[in-house]
Amino acid sequence: MTADLAYVVIGASLLLAIVLPDLLRRWAISAPMVLVGIGMLIGLTPLPDGLPLDPRANRVAIEHATELVIIVALMGVGLALDRPLELRNPRSWRRWSATWRLLVIGMPVTIAAVALLGWAAGLAPAVALLLGAALAPTDPVLASDVQVAGPQTGDHEVDESDELRFTLTSEAGLNDGLAFPFVYMAILLATEGAVSRWALEWVGFYLVAKVVIGVVAGMLVGRTLAYVAFRSSNRSLRVAERGESLLALAALVASYGVGEVLGGYGFLSVFVCAMSFRSAERSHDYHAAMHEVAERLERLLTLFVLLVLGIALTRGLLEALDWRGIAIGLALILVLRPAAGMLALTPWAGRTKGTASLTRGQRWATAFFGVRGVGSVYYLAYAAGEDEALAQDWLWSTVAFTIVASVLIHGVLATPVMARIDPVRR
Predict the structure, then answer these.
(1) Is residue 426 part of a domain?
(2) Nearest to 173 by CA among 165, 181, 183, 184
(3) Residue 35's closest CA among 421, 409, 396, 404?
(4) Is the model's pLDDT at 345 over the cut of 60?
């Protein structure tokens, strides 16, 4: 194939990325499903012979590419959420109760379950723990079919009928950063050995300090940019007045950079920055314009990630996959995540406080739609750079299989399930 033909394929793929979301809206087929399939077909041709597809040889490129996709998605998710979260308002925290339950109960239970399953299948403890940490967080990139559509401007009220989508969206926005302590736990277990050597460091620094730093950094950047954009005394700096929506890109890059430089979790910084910015002038149309920029950029970046993933699938990425990887991936999607989600969301001892706004059907849907995606690839690439034992081909094959299985299973079921639960919205 010539380079000119490559441009034709890329151009056609870009066109698909633009038209697929609306074209497939009423069908049980998602855009990620189609894009992965196209990538697999391209992989069967001679076209991508020169593409860097070996995950070990191209670990750094994979890490940075997926990192960029995630922070763009997190900015879009943070701007899309209409429900406020005020530090000094207990009532606002209670309205996020389902999200906290999924993060504090559901995610650790999922990590532990996958890790135990991997350990029982013969994996080393550090490898099993990394697999659980990488696969546990739901993905803000590939879960658009079950997330809120975007910021609703002109009205401060929260649409309570959208509780299911709000919970899935807010969980995806926060758990990418909150899974990082467990990735570091796997790295420390592989590099430092006995837990007694690093347990206090992990709790004090990786679990607490880095989370706090990431949140504070995001709040500072978000509030600073909001003040400049909406209230600066210099008219030239009040970019919200002229609708300069590219500030979204400056915000996501700045917040991620500040969070990382200060030693915190940059993913948390980006999401908190977007939430902090959204809290300023909440009804302003500028939030919708910024969200549109982030959403379009995310769509284009996701296109290339999914195409390359599809190509890699038919170019040897699954060669190391065995029955253990298939069993763990399917168990996670069909059993472990749904069970952990229901454990977190089901009211205890007859009390409904915190989950009353979710019906039983919505709780089941929230527990089931834990979409795996780009974040899993990033965490694996990051950990693989820290220790060779965490860079196994089997891990890459298993994570890739789980992502594709999630794309297929969740993609097929998203439209009919969401339509059944909330037919008015559809």
Answers:
(1) no
(2) 165
(3) 404
(4) yes
